[in-house]
Design the sequence.
């Protein structure tokens, strides 16, 4: 069996208590509308409060302004925040994705410039990967960076760029060398300011009317040499190598947890659940417990220096599918079409979740791609 | 004994058993060991080998005649037994019957034990003044002279007809007792579960039981037994799921159609990925729950976190059984639907064991009721209970 059980240490449980105390103080239940997951609510103010407590940039070493904490410490903070539906969207990408990439591949100058600001929740990033014609097939991106004196000139269009209208920079996957036989050669990542000249951010309204997605058109955008992330031409390796196994955290199974909690909270006090609901709630609780153990196991494996790519893909697949299952089960228990404007928090969250849930198994690697990763690993088995 | 070493030893032992006649063996994939459903469960052979090594009594205290070791060791053995569809009452002899006897101050006899599978989960209410056995075991003890007389019916007793003795909780004027019933004077009706494993009905009518066969039940005996029963099945199922997963992947990598292994077709590959993940989930859940229950041994009451873990492990194993069996049969095609090909030895056990010691639905209702009772803010803290250093 691939997954090992995890026993948490006293210091890790203490960290959990600190986060819970912080949330009780800053986000008492009923004082805010819970967000459905990591991307739901953008609050630089809340992110800064977390940063002040040392809970942003936890993985960044102290010499770059971070806290040198372990993957399990980060897991614990993340799961407490997400279970509470806390507004973490502003710093999430910078913290979970950009910072590790800068640490692994960035130049010393880039690390010194960006990492402390990320850890202070003063610098926020978006992801510039998908294009209208390049989604799952990322290697087919057509954004081109042509070398000029002192840097590059960037032309192309990125799409589904969450938070581009709010954030400071985005990491753009682009082609710096012409397409050859091996499509993975000649790709690079450039760090681009979202307010640079030639960058046009166009909103793409989301299915629930919210503004997360954008199309970002790049027209002759100058990017200095110093903002080429890592090695020019090594973009593909950088994008695929370490990040794949970072993607199995609590943000992949807790997006709809608040839906279950509010469902229970709005039951008449002391009222037992009808048998059908009891059965459904019990199954959901059991599934949360199990998927959490799987995700935690990956975190501990990362702490041990392993690279559990297959395990991470399994967890992300199980987790995101489950996030949708929670919505489906609670839809089934609800006895009418949920009203987004309802005074019942559960009902309005259910309405929102119903619209948004299909995205859970699409974003950050579709279910089909994840299962392909697992299947490829099984191919050698006799 | 070191856990990994124990697992490896047991795995080799089961793997070395010759498969019953006529069953095909795929190299590297686990095969069912021991007597199969066409026999009436002749317990000789493999049982004698295991008994010679003390394996059926791992986790039962040596002072009571057991082999020592802890609950986690015993559940590791069950995992590997499940991996080879071993048709023997290992759980009943060790973690269930052996445990009950030792806890009641009774000596564990030689030979396999039978412990009745309760018809449901209704006895499970730890900490709510439970412990008194309900009618599940259907056994009542009455005084007769200086001895006891046992009366009642027990349905679905694994290997009830061939066991050396039956161990059960019984009601009595003195409160709940553990009783060790000798096989003579028991009226037996042989039966089978879906996997063809013996599940016999036993009727007792004033069967005499001597003092060495009766002892006081430990506090909350029915509750602890329900947890152990559920976990014993979860461990067996986790093993069987691992075997099915491995066998199915091997099959898909070896079987070629249209000029290439069927595993190379996306539709099949996607199923293999789902099957593997489901088996892994059940495996980890059972392992964590085992370690947690082992850690709670000796406590007055099963802690709520442990009960949740066992419920989750049983529910996860149940769900995985359905999903994995469906994927495995689909990938195997027609050959997986034959009596000769070994797949059904595993899938039939999975379908059967999923209903024993609390079905998915029974444990889900129990868990859902506890969640509702505790209230919304208590759910997240409950879900974050787990193993602690």
Sequence:
């Amino acid at each position: 069996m691939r997954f090992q059980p995890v026993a948490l240490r006293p210091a890790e449980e203490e960290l959990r208590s600190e986060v819970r105390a912080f949330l009780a103080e800053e986000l008492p239940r009923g004082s805010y509308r819970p967000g459905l997951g990591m991307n739901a609510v953008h609050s630089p103010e809340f992110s800064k409060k977390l940063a002040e407590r040392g809970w942003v940039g936890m993985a960044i070493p102290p010499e770059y302004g971070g806290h040198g904490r372990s993957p399990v410490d980060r897991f614990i903070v993340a799961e407490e925040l997400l279970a509470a539906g806390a507004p973490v969207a502003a710093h999430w990408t910078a913290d979970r994705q950009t910072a590790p990439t800068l640490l692994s591949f960035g130049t010393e100058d880039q690390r010194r410039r960006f990492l402390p600001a990320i850890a202070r929740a003063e610098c926020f990033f978006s992801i510039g990967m998908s294009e209208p014609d390049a989604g799952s097939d990322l290697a087919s991106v057509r954004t081109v960076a042509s070398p000029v004196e002192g840097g590059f000139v960037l032309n192309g269009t990125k799409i589904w760029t969450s938070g581009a209208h709010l954030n400071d920079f985005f990491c753009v996957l682009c082609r710096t060398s012409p397409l050859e036989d091996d499509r993975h050669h000649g790709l690079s990542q450039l760090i681009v300011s979202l307010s640079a000249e030639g960058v046009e951010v166009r909103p793409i309204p989301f299915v629930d009317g919210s503004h997360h997605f954008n199309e970002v058109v790049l027209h002759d955008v100058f990017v200095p040499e110093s903002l080429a992330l890592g090695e020019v031409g090594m973009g593909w390796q950088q994008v695929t190598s370490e990040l794949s196994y970072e993607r199995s955290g609590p943000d992949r199974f807790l997006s709809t947890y608040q839906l279950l909690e509010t469902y229970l909270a709005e039951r008449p006090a002391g009222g037992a659940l009808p048998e059908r609901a009891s059965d459904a709630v019990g199954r959901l609780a059991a599934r949360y417990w199990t998927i959490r153990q799987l995700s935690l196991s990956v975190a501990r494996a990362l702490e041990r220096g392993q690279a559990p790519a297959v395990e991470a893909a399994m967890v992300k697949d199980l987790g995101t599918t489950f996030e949708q299952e929670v919505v489906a089960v609670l839809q089934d228990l609800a006895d009418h079409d949920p009203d987004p404007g309802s005074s019942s928090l559960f009902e309005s969250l259910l309405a929102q979740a119903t619209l948004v849930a299909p995205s859970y198994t699409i974003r950050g690697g579709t279910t089909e791609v994840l299962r392909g990763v697992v299947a490829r690993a099984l191919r050698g088995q006799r | 004994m070191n856990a990994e070493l124990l697992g490896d030893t047991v795995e080799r032992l089961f793997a070395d058993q010759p498969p019953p006649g006529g069953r095909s063996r795929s190299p590297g994939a686990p095969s069912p060991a021991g007597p199969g459903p066409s026999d009436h469960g002749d317990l000789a052979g493999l049982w004698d080998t295991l008994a010679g090594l003390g394996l059926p009594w791992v986790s039962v205290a040596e002072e009571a005649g057991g082999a020592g070791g802890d609950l986690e060791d015993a559940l590791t053995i069950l995992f590997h037994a499940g991996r080879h569809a071993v048709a023997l009452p290992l759980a009943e002899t060790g973690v269930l019957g052996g445990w009950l006897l030792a806890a009641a101050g009774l000596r564990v006899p030689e030979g396999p034990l039978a412990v009745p599978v309760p018809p449901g989960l209704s006895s499970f209410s730890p900490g709510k003044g439970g412990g008194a056995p309900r009618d599940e075991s259907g056994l009542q003890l009455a005084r007769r002279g200086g001895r006891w007389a046992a009366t009642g019916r027990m349905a679905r007793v694994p290997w009830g007809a061939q066991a050396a003795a039956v161990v059960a909780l019984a009601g009595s004027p003195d409160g709940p007792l553990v009783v060790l019933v000798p096989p003579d004077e028991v009226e037996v009706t042989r039966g089978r579960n879906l996997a063809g494993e013996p599940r016999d009905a036993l009727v007792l009518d004033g069967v005499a039981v001597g003092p060495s066969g009766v002892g006081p039940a430990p506090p909350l005996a029915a509750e602890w037994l329900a947890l152990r029963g559920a976990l014993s099945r979860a461990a067996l199922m986790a093993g069987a799921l691992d075997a099915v997963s491995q066998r199915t992947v091997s099959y898909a990598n070896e079987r070629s159609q249209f000029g290439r292994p069927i595993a190379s077709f996306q539709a099949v590959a996607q199923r293999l990925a789902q099957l593997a993940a489901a088996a892994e989930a059940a495996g980890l859940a059972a392992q964590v729950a085992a370690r947690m229950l082992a850690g709670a041994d000796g406590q007055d009451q099963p802690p709520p976190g442990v009960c949740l873990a066992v419920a989750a492990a049983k529910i996860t194993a149940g769900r995985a059984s359905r999903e994995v069996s469906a994927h495995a049969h689909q990938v195997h095609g027609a050959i997986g639907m034959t009596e000769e090909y070994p797949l059904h030895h595993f899938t039939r056990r999975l379908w059967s064991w999923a209903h024993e010691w609390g079905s998915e639905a029974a444990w889900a209702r129990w868990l859902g009721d506890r969640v509702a009772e505790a209230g919304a803010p208590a759910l997240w803290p409950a879900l974050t209970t787990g193993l602690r250093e």
User: Anything to note?
Assistant: The CA atoms of residues 143 and 156 of chain A lie 4 Å apart. Chain A touches chain B through 62 residues (CB under 8 Å). The first strand of chain A starts at residue 7 and ends at 8.
